[in-house]
Amino acid sequence: MAKLRLNRPGAVPGLLPEPYYWWEAGALMGSLIDYWHYTGDTRWNDIAEDGLLFQTGPNNDYMPPNQTMTEGNDDQGFWGMAVMSAAELNFQNPPDSKPQWLALAQAVFNTQAARWEANDCGGGLRWQIFPWNNGYNYKNSISQACFFNIAARLARYTGNKSYADWAERTWDWMVGTKLLDLKTYYIYDGIHVENCSNITPYQWTYNAGAMMLGAAALYNHSMTASQRETWRERVDGLLNGSLIFFTGDSGDIMTEVACEPVDLCDLDQQSFKAYLSRWMAGTTQWAPWTYSRIKPLLASSAAAAVSTCTGGDNGRMCGLKWNTRKWDGMTGVGQQMAAMEVVLANVIEHSKLPVTDWEGGTSAGDPGAGGADVGRKTPEFPSVSTAEKAGASLRALGNHTLLDLYSRRFATCGNTHYILALGKWLLMTNEVENVKAILGPKMDDWPIDGPRLFSVLPLLGPNSIFTSNGEAWHTARAMLRPSFVRDQVADLKCFDKHIGNLLAAIPADGTTFDMQALLFDMTMDSSTDFLLGYSTNLLTKASPEAQQFVKDFEYASRESAKRARLGPLLLHVPYRNLTKAVQGLRDYVHFYLQKATAKKRESDTRDRNYVFLDELLKENPPEDYTVDQILSILIAGRDTTATAMSSVFYFLARDAGAVEKLREEIKSLNVEDPTWEELKHMKYLNNVIKESLRLFSPVATNSRTAKRETILPRGGGKDGTQPILVPKGMPVRWSSHVLHRNKDVFGPDADEFRPERWERDLRVGWEYIPFSGGPRICLGQQFALTQIAYAVFKFFKMFRSIEARDSSPLLLRTNITISFPHGCLGISSGLTASSFRDFDAKPI
């Protein structure tokens, strides 16, 4: 077991090292519980408990953020069956403050029952939970078997008939689709929803075992003689059908018949015999008449398995093919689990019977557990506590957030390809010529629609510069553009005050602080000052109204983005909290709008020469229209600028050489307060900002929808180099996160932070679009770049260096914009970013 390094310092509880998948770690937790139950040895108990609790996810239902992007129903099911065993065997209960075993199993059941789908093939669970994963259109038997197994065991443990009803429904569906053949009791692999009668005919041990134990549980649970007889027949049928997996001269050696004879068992399949062994042994306790038939099979298989355990460095590693009676040169977690489980199964008659809620059970339940995930069809990203506990990024664990998923798909599917998302086809491309065609002169053929629109529509309304198209967009841009001319952007007085407040808030004694949180406060203060003439003053002393405004702003942004991922239908579903937050935002801006209108009538003088709102009022637009535009600019001026600025500090905190070069440039200028022109001519400072935006673009993905049938320059033909026809209404999405890491453009080290790459003759056009491109390029680009440059300059006039105290890789979280999920702590994630809570600033 030490080989698995489950208890190595710094490892994430409940995970196996690569290349093993998450589901098999859940299966292994079940094996550790079995080991304790059969032997009484408690040495692995704390490791099993830690793993089972750490992987529960924020809603305590085994949908942890670092797994849900690629999670299947069968994956979740194996963790659910492990905690069901913990409840039945009275495994050590977690602390009261933690979720309990029975409640966790109920949570898995509840989330899976909500995914039962009658539209395709008349019922059943899909293999994959989310539609972008390969296998979403496949209904495999193991997903049904896991669900059946958990439901049946919950029925037995709790006595609740509703669980038994679900198990019956699953059984009937398996029989109806002929995945379970009642003539032979063979269980076949699965069916594709496009043709529900076309069965994939492979048979696997774990399907037979999961169904057999579930049937035995329902026999044990049944109240009437008729029910018991029905389930007795079914247990016998499944036992007869499972004999296909026993081969050898006497037909009593367990074999994975679909892959062992042809040497094609993959990493997953190498562990399957562990589960048939486990569940056949369990069947003998709930269906005792089966013992005389099952025990000889387990005994012969155990002897054969042990005879292969002569390999590896220690001479005790087990092989896959038990029939050979010798080590076959293969070893791994699956082989070790299978051998251990079949040996343990042979002492089943000496082990305690599984308990129930009323006969010895001590695990607390919760019939409504998992409710927060019921019906959810989009993944969540890690909370702070998850990332802190893990101490490593999602990427380091071999798991992938949305932007990583894009990178993988482009690598495997080509630069332009179609995907099916939420039942609708989407064209993905990272071809520069395609992006140029969409954003360039023909942009009117490519309006904003789909998730790009839906993520901000509830917040901004249909008339803002970010949500309008065609003439409405041209009108909004014409009204806003004069506010971002050089004279306004180059006025650094407004920035200076708020950046001074930021620097004053940074501890000078080396104390850990969250740089991203301070930057978000600073950019909200400066943006509201620039836009409204009145700052929220979050870095000094914010009023209760300002504090509520910021809470409403962050809540509305987050919830709008979440709903957008689920498609346009949710726009019409009432959401009281979101509506209330948006109204709060608009009321706050309306207050200052009315104040500005009154001041305009009283006097033309202002404390500052320029206020955005004053300029808008010269056009006499409707009040609501003005509010739409102000909130639009606030999103850009606050969120994207803060994220971009955070990325600069993130990378500098990990590159002392870059900091030294930057400080030398700042010293050479020999000024305290640089002008706009001086900042623009600081070559290395601007290269640092360019490089940070390349690796961490605040808007990491973008999309448009074809207004009419049209053609894009590349993506067609066998090699993808020919034009491609795009039908009317087709959404097209691209990712600057992927474009900016093109090694053909930026070099073989494109994934690394190296500002010096911009010193060479690096000619980029549409390959580098942190502020988008074409006529809709961000109006506030220079506003953001100026504020970033000024903040970095002033920071390094006060502080000598910065240090990240966590060396974990970059993590990103996607929202309307991207950000560091856990602040600037020194590590971040959501697609993959870093944060700065563990961040040192040393004064000069």
From TrEMBL:
<keyword id="KW-0326">Glycosidase</keyword>
<keyword id="KW-0378">Hydrolase</keyword>
<dbReference type="InterPro" id="IPR014480">
    <property type="entry name" value="Mannan-1_6-alpha_mannosidase"/>
</dbReference>
<dbReference type="InterPro" id="IPR001128">
    <property type="entry name" value="Cyt_P450"/>
</dbReference>
<dbReference type="GO" id="GO:0009272">
    <property type="term" value="P:fungal-type cell wall biogenesis"/>
</dbReference>
<protein>
    <recommendedName>
        <fullName>mannan endo-1,6-alpha-mannosidase</fullName>
        <ecNumber>3.2.1.101</ecNumber>
    </recommendedName>
</protein>
<dbReference type="GO" id="GO:0008496">
    <property type="term" value="F:mannan endo-1,6-alpha-mannosidase activity"/>
</dbReference>
<dbReference type="InterPro" id="IPR008928">
    <property type="entry name" value="6-hairpin_glycosidase_sf"/>
</dbReference>
<keyword id="KW-0408">Iron</keyword>
<keyword id="KW-0732">Signal</keyword>
<dbReference type="GO" id="GO:0005506">
    <property type="term" value="F:iron ion binding"/>
</dbReference>
<dbReference type="GO" id="GO:0020037">
    <property type="term" value="F:heme binding"/>
</dbReference>
<dbReference type="GO" id="GO:0012505">
    <property type="term" value="C:endomembrane system"/>
</dbReference>
<dbReference type="Pfam" id="PF03663">
    <property type="entry name" value="Glyco_hydro_76"/>
</dbReference>
<keyword id="KW-0325">Glycoprotein</keyword>
<dbReference type="InterPro" id="IPR002974">
    <property type="entry name" value="Cyt_P450_E_CYP52_ascomycetes"/>
</dbReference>
<comment type="similarity">
    <text>Belongs to the glycosyl hydrolase 76 family.</text>
</comment>
<keyword id="KW-0479">Metal-binding</keyword>
<keyword id="KW-0472">Membrane</keyword>
<dbReference type="GO" id="GO:0016712">
    <property type="term" value="F:oxidoreductase activity, acting on paired donors, with incorporation or reduction of molecular oxygen, reduced flavin or flavoprotein as one donor, and incorporation of one atom of oxygen"/>
</dbReference>
<dbReference type="InterPro" id="IPR036396">
    <property type="entry name" value="Cyt_P450_sf"/>
</dbReference>
<dbReference type="InterPro" id="IPR017972">
    <property type="entry name" value="Cyt_P450_CS"/>
</dbReference>
<feature type="region of interest" description="Disordered">
    <location>
        <begin position="356"/>
        <end position="385"/>
    </location>
</feature>
<dbReference type="GO" id="GO:0016052">
    <property type="term" value="P:carbohydrate catabolic process"/>
</dbReference>
<dbReference type="InterPro" id="IPR005198">
    <property type="entry name" value="Glyco_hydro_76"/>
</dbReference>
<dbReference type="Pfam" id="PF00067">
    <property type="entry name" value="p450"/>
</dbReference>
